[in-house]
Amino acid sequence: MYLHPEAASAGTPSRDVLLVSAIITVSLSVTIVLCGICQWCQRKMGKRYKTSLETVGTPDSSRGRSEKKTIKLPAAGKAGNAAPAPGQPPHDESDRKTEPHSSVSDLVNSLTSEMLMLSPGSEDDEGHEGVSRENLGRIQFSVGYNFQESTLTVKIMKAQELPAKDFSGTSDPFVKIYLLPDKKHKLETKVKRKNLNPHWNETFLFEGFPYEKVVQRVLYLQVLDYDRFSRNDPIGEVSIPLNKVDLTQMQTFWKDLKPCSDGSGSRGELLLSLCYNPSANSIVVNIIKARNLKAMDIGGTSDPYVKVWLMYKDKRVEKKKTVVMKRCLNPVFNESFAFDIPTERLRETTIVITVMDKDRLSRNDVIGKIYLSWKSGPGEVKHWKDMIARPRQAVAQWHQLKA
């Protein structure tokens, strides 16, 4: 390369050197700009991909066929013969199963991973003292009145997040409809088998019902779990005075279910603790005490004792029971029972607690029951999860006795 003598002596770079430096500078600038564009694109693409994932699997709220039932109702307010005959269950239209929606389904399938992920601080802090308010689900319905035809229309649409009442972790819900204070005449929806999020879409027309009598009534809905061989279990209830509803057009409501007035709330409560030992493959159930038990005897008392059944896949495995406490509605038991339960069977295990009233001359009466498992009601599931999250610790909780 030739350099001019004067340029060489002054230390000034040649034209070729300046050209190479300019090319390098431009290349670096282009590279920096391209990197910035790539990062921006990645962020945008990542955001779009995340949004698309969040929209996958959105449930279809319009599922289910609409069905209308016409009931001619005389001015006296009788419901006619639209309800099923005594002893006959409401007819089931569909056995389609809807998966239960609960916090349990958000956990991984592996029990070992579940125990590692759960921690005492991860649970809801509500209800550490006493009994927390149990979530019984909610129901959607609509009501309106046709003045020209003197007809009250009630449509039962659907329910969500109902508690499980069966050993299988599901329920068979249906709805009874009353216009209080009339308790003799009721109408019923069909039973939805094994479904915690049922869709009914059934319409009931109360024809020939004067408006001045409609506004004196209270619409009462009771959700129950149908049992073929025993008494139907109440799940929850909703009541709405019709004089507080604008009946000139169909009004749609979402209402949280409350404990049934004739259901579990009047049977008393039981305090018990669970202690899970994974190394010993055992669960210790401690029956501590009960309070405000329902009086089953003529004298206004009961002779309570507690039976504890270990169930595996809906089959009875082992039974234990406490001593009988004579003439007592607030008994203190403090009796512990140990059950051998391998870890791999824990998910299919249910512990059934039954508070009984001892009768010497007749059959013992059931005061109330509690089902403890991974797939029971919200309060029972919380106790079960707390037990797994705190191995080798006795976890105590109050439970409402249920029918």
From TrEMBL:
Gene: SYT7
UniProt feature, compositional bias: Low complexity: 74-85
Biased composition (Basic and acidic residues): 90-100
GO biological process: calcium ion regulated lysosome exocytosis; calcium ion-regulated exocytosis of neurotransmitter; plasma membrane repair; positive regulation of transport; regulation of calcium ion-dependent exocytosis; regulation of endocytosis; regulation of insulin secretion; vesicle fusion
Comp. bias regions, Polar residues: 52-61
Protein name: Synaptotagmin-7
Chief subcellular location: membrane
Transmembrane segments: 20-41
Domain of life: Eukaryota
Record-level Gene Ontology MF annotations: calcium ion binding; calcium-dependent phospholipid binding; calmodulin binding; clathrin binding; phosphatidylserine binding; SNARE binding
InterPro entries: C2_dom (IPR000008), C2_domain_sf (IPR035892), C2A_Synaptotagmin-7 (IPR037732), C2B_Synaptotagmin-7 (IPR037741), Synaptotagmin (IPR001565)
Membrane topology: Single-pass membrane protein
Pfam families hit by this protein: C2 (PF00168)
UniProt KW keywords: Calcium, Calmodulin-binding, Cell membrane, Cell projection, Cytoplasmic vesicle, Exocytosis, Lipoprotein, Lysosome, Membrane, Metal-binding, Palmitate, Peroxisome, Phosphoprotein, Repeat, Synapse, Transmembrane, Transmembrane helix
Quaternary context: Homodimer. Can also form heterodimers with SYT6, SYT9 and SYT10. Interacts with calmodulin (CALM1, CALM2 or CALM3). Interacts with CD63; required for localization to lysosomes. Interacts with APP.
Region Disordered, residue ranges: 52-106
UniProt similarity note: Belongs to the synaptotagmin family.
